[in-house]
């Protein structure tokens, strides 16, 4: 057997072993997530009021993309403010938390990540509401519908996040979601291991702009891609040492799951949608660069 084939076999074997080791932790994480999500009701009540951004930040920490999609729907219907929507989007980490939970040695990092994103989400959300309420001081609730009427909450479903929710037992829903993300994780781990073997650690670091203030910008742009794979990729790159903490925060701040897709689809004001996205991108990049300058 040639040296290349031996290296390839070792990479495949190591990736498979690492994947199998994390599978039970991943399933346990999604079982907990599914249970928490089934218990969540009346989101518009939890996100309403002058401190809706605080509730939005806490809700967004629950590691799945359904809440960001639901928040986008509520925003389009005028039931939550811009600050609350931003708080949900900023605190959302999509699939990063389950991936970290599947790596028991990463629990401290997960705590740091959740705390950083929660504080950032609350701060940005409250400031945004303060600014926009002053600008539109003629309205008692900034983001109400065109005639000021209330709307019933409508929960958005998406194939990658919610397709099995409400129609299948809890265990089956958790198992399906686990297998979906497990496939993403293994594929990305394999790709990273092959990249390191083929192009080398130093060349991969150069490609990812390591030790550069441009890396958080690159991570933020990757995070903005509305797909579960982007959050998995960012998390695995951080765990492999290829991304700084500031960069992974930048990427996971802009990574609002399918919330942005739902926002652009459901909200008719496209300029408003673009403004929300621009704020999200600016916050992600700014926070990432600030953390990197501080040595995180």
From TrEMBL:
<dbReference type="InterPro" id="IPR021552">
    <property type="entry name" value="ArsP_2"/>
</dbReference>
<feature type="transmembrane region" description="Helical">
    <location>
        <begin position="113"/>
        <end position="132"/>
    </location>
</feature>
<keyword id="KW-1133">Transmembrane helix</keyword>
<keyword id="KW-0812">Transmembrane</keyword>
<feature type="transmembrane region" description="Helical">
    <location>
        <begin position="243"/>
        <end position="263"/>
    </location>
</feature>
<feature type="transmembrane region" description="Helical">
    <location>
        <begin position="174"/>
        <end position="199"/>
    </location>
</feature>
<dbReference type="Pfam" id="PF11449">
    <property type="entry name" value="ArsP_2"/>
</dbReference>
<keyword id="KW-0472">Membrane</keyword>
<feature type="transmembrane region" description="Helical">
    <location>
        <begin position="275"/>
        <end position="294"/>
    </location>
</feature>
<protein>
    <submittedName>
        <fullName>Arsenic efflux protein</fullName>
    </submittedName>
</protein>
<feature type="transmembrane region" description="Helical">
    <location>
        <begin position="12"/>
        <end position="33"/>
    </location>
</feature>
<feature type="transmembrane region" description="Helical">
    <location>
        <begin position="45"/>
        <end position="62"/>
    </location>
</feature>
């Amino acid at each position: 057997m040639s040296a290349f084939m031996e290296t390839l076999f070792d990479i495949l074997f190591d990736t498979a072993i690492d994947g199998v080791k994390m599978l039970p932790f991943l399933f346990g994480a999604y079982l907990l997530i599914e249970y928490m999500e089934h218990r969540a009701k009346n989101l518009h009540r939890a996100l309403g009021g002058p401190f809706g951004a605080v509730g939005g930040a806490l809700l967004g920490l629950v590691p799945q993309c359904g809440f960001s999609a639901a928040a986008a729907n509520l925003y389009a219907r005028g039931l939550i403010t811009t600050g609350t929507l931003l708080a949900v989007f900023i605190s959302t980490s999509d699939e990063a938390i389950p991936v970290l939970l599947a790596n028991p040695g990463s629990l401290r990092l997960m705590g740091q990540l959740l705390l950083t994103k929660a504080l950032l989400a609350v701060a940005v959300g409250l400031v945004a509401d303060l600014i926009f309420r002053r600008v539109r001081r003629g309205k008692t609730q900034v983001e109400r519908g065109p005639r000021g009427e209330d709307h019933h909450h409508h929960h958005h479903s998406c194939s990658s996040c919610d397709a099995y929710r409400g129609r299948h037992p809890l265990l089956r829903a958790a198992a399906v979601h686990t297998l979906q993300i497990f496939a993403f994780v293994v594929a990305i781990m394999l790709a990273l291991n092959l990249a390191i073997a083929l192009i080398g650690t130093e060349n991969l670091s150069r490609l990812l702009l390591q030790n550069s203030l441009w890396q958080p910008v690159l991570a933020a742009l990757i995070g903005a891609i509305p797909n579960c794979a982007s959050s998995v990729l960012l998390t695995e790159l951080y765990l492999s040492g290829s991304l700084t903490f500031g960069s992974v925060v930048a990427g996971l701040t802009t990574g609002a799951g399918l919330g942005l897709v739902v926002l652009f689809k459901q909200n008719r004001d496209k300029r408003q949608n673009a403004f929300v996205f621009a704020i999200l991108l600016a916050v992600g990049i700014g926070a990432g660069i600030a953390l990197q300058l501080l040595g995180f």
